[in-house]
């Protein structure tokens, strides 16, 4: 009987030891549009976040004395503000310790309150509307320049570099598109330019003929657009069909390979875009990231996967520095982080904006976007 008791105790001790050394699973969230017109952009963000988790898991990171296995919980917000709040609550209920997302400002802003109420850090890799980090939430961060910087770069480029005196501004009425357009208008006027037309559609508009006919009649020297590639591409095609060969400048929502595909013959050397961040050629680890990204996912980078990677890595690094996966414990480490990422130095100001955010101006040439200059 004693022998049997000793055996039983040995089995229990072995089981306890096994549990003590088992990997601790930590869930991390990602939210972006994985369906709909801009699913390619959302899947780009998702892939960047996933690659960061896979890289972290290879390192067998120990937190609190135990090896941590990070697990991605990815949700589709369909680029819809209401869906974004449902998705945010779903991620909170799933027990995620941090979230990379959302992709757009219109989804990031309403979702941010839910993450704030839950005390969960949220880092957007691509939301640029200034309002996102102006709500006073201690959980809200972004790793790209905001629309003040981007809109200013677009407006100055049109008026000072391209010498446009009469400018038309069009947007898609989303938080991102309209916010960017508002900043463009301020910059154009500050530089001495005149806004001869301020028009808009929606984030679903593909027939822009009425808007463009009105713009053409007002003899604009340049057209600037705040919106995504799904709407910017058809607009540019229709512009050129109407004989409107003036410069066309769009923001980061259309600054990728899909814009080139959707615009077809509408793309000319007078087509420009701005991207909130450095060109990959100037990112400290951009070339290596691009090679590994293509090898892993068998697709080209669209826009912000390097930033999604850095956002996820920042959350994991903050956990390591705090030696805790409890958001209450590692959140202060995240707010004070100084990390060398793929895209550059990751460091936040008191509002949660990235410090030293850059904007890259690009021009279409020989079938691709060519980097023109970097504005800080």
Automatic annotation (TrEMBL):
Q: Which UniProt keywords apply?
A: Signal
Q: Does the keyword Signal apply?
A: yes
All copies of domain Leucine-binding protein, residue ranges: 26-352
**InterPro entries xrefs:** Leu-bd, Peripla_BP_I
- Signal peptide segment: 1-22
The keyword Metal-binding belongs to this UniProt entry's keyword annotation = no
Q: Per the similarity annotation, which family is this?
A: Belongs to the leucine-binding protein family.
Name by which UniProt lists this protein: Branched-chain amino acid ABC transporter substrate-binding protein
């Amino acid at each position: 009987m004693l022998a049997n008791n000793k055996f039983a105790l040995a089995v229990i001790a072995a089981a306890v030891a096994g549990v003590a050394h088992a990997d601790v699973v930590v869930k991390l969230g990602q939210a972006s549009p994985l369906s709909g017109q801009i699913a390619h952009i959302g899947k780009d963000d998702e892939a960047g976040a996933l690659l960061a988790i896979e890289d972290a898991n290879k390192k067998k990171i120990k937190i609190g004395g135990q090896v941590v296995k990070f697990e991605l919980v990815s949700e589709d917000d369909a680029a819809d503000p209401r869906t974004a709040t449902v998705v945010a609550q779903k991620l909170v209920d799933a027990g995620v310790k941090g979230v990379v997302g959302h992709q757009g400002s219109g989804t990031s802003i309403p979702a941010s309150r839910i993450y704030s109420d839950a005390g969960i850090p949220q880092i957007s890799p691509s939301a640029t509307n200034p309002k996102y980090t102006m709500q006073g939430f201690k959980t809200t961060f972004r790793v790209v320049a905001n629309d003040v910087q981007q809109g200013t770069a677009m407006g100055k480029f049109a008026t000072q570099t391209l010498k446009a005196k009469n400018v038309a501004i069009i947007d898609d009425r989303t938080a991102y598109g309209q916010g960017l357009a508002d900043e463009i208008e301020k910059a154009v006027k500050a530089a001495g330019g005149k806004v001869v037309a301020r028009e808009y559609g929606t984030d679903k508009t593909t027939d822009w003929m009425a808007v463009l006919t009105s713009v053409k009649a007002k003899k604009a020297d340049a057209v600037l657009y705040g919106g995504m590639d799904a709407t910017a591409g058809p607009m540019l095609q229709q512009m050129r069909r109407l004989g409107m060969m003036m410069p066309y400048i769009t923001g980061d929502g259309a600054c990728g390979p899909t814009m080139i595909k959707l615009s077809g013959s509408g793309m000319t050397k007078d087509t420009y875009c701005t991207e909130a961040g450095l060109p990959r050629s100037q990112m400290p680890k951009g070339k290596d990231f691009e090679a590994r990204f293509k090898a892993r996912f068998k697709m080209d980078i669209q826009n912000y996967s390097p930033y999604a990677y850095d956002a996820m890595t920042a959350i994991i690094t903050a956990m390591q520095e705090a030696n805790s996966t409890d958001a209450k414990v590692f959140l202060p480490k995240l707010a004070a982080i100084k990390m060398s990422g793929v895209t550059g130095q990751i460091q936040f100001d008191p509002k949660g904006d990235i410090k030293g955010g850059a904007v890259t101006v690009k021009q279409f040439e020989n079938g691709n976007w060519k980097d023109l200059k970097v504005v800080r």
